[in-house]
Design a protein that fits this description.
Elements: E1 2-7, E2 11-17, E3 22-29, H1 33-46, E4 51-56, H2 59-72, E5 78-79, E6 89-90, H3 100-113, E7 118-124, E8 127-133, E9 138-146, H4 148-157, H5 181-207, E10 212-217, E11 233-234, H6 238-253
Parallel strand pairs: 1-4, 4-5, 6-9, 7-10, 10-11
Antiparallel strand pairs: 1-2, 2-3, 7-8, 8-9
Helix pairs in contact: 1-2, 3-6, 4-5
Amino acid sequence: MNLLIDIGNSFTHIAVHNGNRITYSQKAHTSEKKQVTLLLKSISGKFEISSIAIASVSPQAFKAIQQYTLDNFKLKPLSVNNKIQLPIKIKVKKSVTLGADRICNAVYGNEIAGGRSNVLVMDLGTANTYDLVLKNGDFVGGIIAPGIMTSSKALNLNTANLPLLEYLKLSARAPLIGKNTFEAIQSGLVNYMKFATEGIVAAIKKKNKGKLTVILTGGSAILLKNNVNFEYIYGGNTVLEGLNLILSYQNNSK
């Protein structure tokens, strides 16, 4: 059994993979260290873990979880970064700055495309990332933009009167022209992301000739499902699946 840990800016996702699929997954706020520890503790009592891999965008949280796995599972976790062996070729300048989540998404996208097409993985969360892997396996880069709740908080913090719109109050059917301040902000958050995403897909298709597979994932992806003008594959756990692919690739290379 592989233990997979995705430490994000907002949430830490923990999963167990049996080699064929994810059989168990839970999440907790990354800031809630006690809750994350309890999740890991529960796994140690339920599953026989043989390998561990971590993808982290939080150095502080990574150190704590890495130490916990060493002390309690007696296993040294694989930490995803630009220096490890990967089933893709990183062609990004200053690749040391690449987030582990983006590397995992790129690996997952390349696996899904299977060398038949270029692939764009769109992960919509705290940050919206759009990462492009060519059909030859070259991870050439991507786009990073503020996520929908990051934008909502920025509007609230940097203006005197605009309210903070919580995620649960947002709707995929946000009106284009808001008839009040709430609707106007909702349109700005949801429709702005929708039109920006459609524009990005169109621009990438135009610049990179040939077939493009598009994968949509992330916490805010639900707001775009069935609401965009391009075909896509919806992925629920792309970072975790990519993390497992990387761990398997490492184990098979030994």
